[in-house]
Structures are given as structure tokens and as C-alpha cells.
Write a structure and sequence with these properties.
mainly beta
Length: 243
């Protein structure tokens, strides 16, 4: 019995070491792979049952997300200058999104997308949004079309990097830079004026906010969610690692 306990402890420590090695320097995990600690459903105190944390994967299950058990999942914490890394995959015909700079003021905003910018997560071939320019996987939703489409087939994992650093936004999909823009300048305001968000008073107005994973009613999976923050007030548009 003691031998088995010793083996279990060794295996657990080995797993923790491997997991730590997977996190790049300067990053910290914001999903422990087992629970939704650090997250909650938008407008609620905790995560609803539609979001399942199992075996290192965060799964939105629409069959469970009934009777108020769905909704977008958001971080408890707000982020300002950050580099978000994660992986996602979708079921056939599915739609979701990674939304950032979300302001959770329920008196003003009933949904995450009323304030936050979104990197689209989508089955381009199976979902109707795939037929709409600027609504495809990797796009800055309804604002900027990605420069290329390195998205993998449905059911395969896609890696994402979203870097928001002192006004400069850079997004990568599977290691390929797909969007780069300055936020909140005149050019960006022109993009908003030509989008579906033109008359939304709170959209893209906040320079600090929560990160959300969208419930769009479809099966979607996320894993290896981690973040690095910059807390200096130095004004720069440079991003690390070529981002």
C-alpha cells in the first residue's frame, strides 16, 4: 500500500513538473484543467453547468446548457496589457468566440459582446457565418478580415495568440499573424463606424476588461489557457517574440 502511495505521489509531481514546463516564461495558467476556478458565467457568481472542466479541457456542452445553465464564461479578473495564449476546437457547424476587454456592468450591458472585441472561433465551411466576410475564424469579428486562413479542419486543435500591448493588437492563429491594428485611434474608429457596432455606445470603449469564451449554442472546447501581463506605463507599440 505504501509503495502504491509513493508511486502516486511521484506521478503527480511528474505531471505537475511537465505541466509547469509547458507554460512559457512570464505566463501563468488561468485554467487549472479541472475546475472553473477563476471564471464565472457573465452576470452570475459562478460558472453554469454548461461549462465542463474535464481532463485539462474546458468544454461548452449545449445539451446541458438549458434552463439558464449556459452563457458566456468570463474571467474573474480584468486585464489591460496582456498576451493571451490558448487552444480551441469546434464541432461541425459550430460557432464561438474569444472576447476581450469585456466590461461586466450589468446595469448597462447585458452581453459580453456589447463591449468586448472578438476573435472569431468557427467552422468556416459548416456555419452560415463562414459566408460573411469578417466573420470567419481568426477574424477580428466584423471589423478586420484575417490576412490568411491557417485554421485547421473541424475537430483539430487550433492555437491562438492575442496580444494587446499599449494600444497595439496582434492576433495569431496557428503561429500565423492574421490581424494587426492599433486600437482606439482614428483609423480604428472608422472601422467601427462601418461595422454592425457603429451605434453601440459601449463597444470597444474600454481599455481594461475581462476575457470571455462565448456560448453560441454549439459544442466548443478550449485548453492550455494562459496569460502574460505587462504592468509598466512605458508607452510603446512593440510586442515580444515578433508579435
Amino acid at each position: 500500500m505504501k509503495k502504491n502511495i509513493g508511486i502516486s505521489i511521484v506521478l503527480m509531481l511528474l505531471f505537475q513538473t511537465i505541466h509547469a514546463q509547458m507554460i512559457p516564461k512570464g505566463f501563468k495558467s488561468i485554467f487549472d484543467g479541472k475546475t472553473t476556478d477563476g471564471w464565472h458565467t457573465y452576470g452570475k457568481e459562478k460558472a453554469t453547468a454548461g461549462w465542463k472542466a474535464e481532463n485539462g479541457v474546458l468544454h461548452f456542452d449545449p445539451t446541458v446548457a438549458k434552463n439558464g445553465q449556459g452563457g458566456d464564461l468570463v474571467t474573474d479578473k480584468e486585464y489591460e496589457n496582456f498576451h493571451l495564449k490558448l487552444e480551441w476546437k469546434v464541432a461541425p457547424n459550430a460557432n464561438s468566440g474569444i472576447i476581450f476587454y469585456v466590461n461586466e456592468d450589468l446595469a448597462k450591458f447585458k452581453n459580453t459582446y456589447e463591449t468586448g472585441l472578438e476573435m472569431q472561433v468557427l467552422d468556416n465551411d459548416g456555419h452560415p457565418d463562414g459566408k460573411i466576410e469578417k466573420h470567419r475564424a481568426g477574424n477580428l469579428y466584423d471589423l478586420i478580415k484575417s490576412t490568411s486562413e491557417p485554421v485547421k479542419p473541424v475537430g483539430e486543435w487550433n492555437s491562438v495568440d492575442i496580444v494587446c500591448k499599449f494600444g497595439k493588437l496582434t492576433m495569431q492563429l496557428n503561429g500565423v499573424k492574421v490581424v494587426e491594428t492599433m486600437l482606439w485611434d482614428d483609423n480604428f474608429n472608422t472601422l467601427i463606424a462601418g461595422s454592425k457596432f457603429a451605434t453601440w455606445p459601449g463597444f470597444a470603449k474600454y481599455k481594461k476588461g475581462k476575457i470571455a469564451l462565448q456560448d453560441h449554442g454549439d459544442n466548443v472546447w478550449y485548453r492550455n489557457i494562459m496569460i502574460k501581463e505587462w504592468n509598466t506605463m512605458e508607452i510603446t507599440t512593440g510586442c515580444e517574440n515578433g508579435l
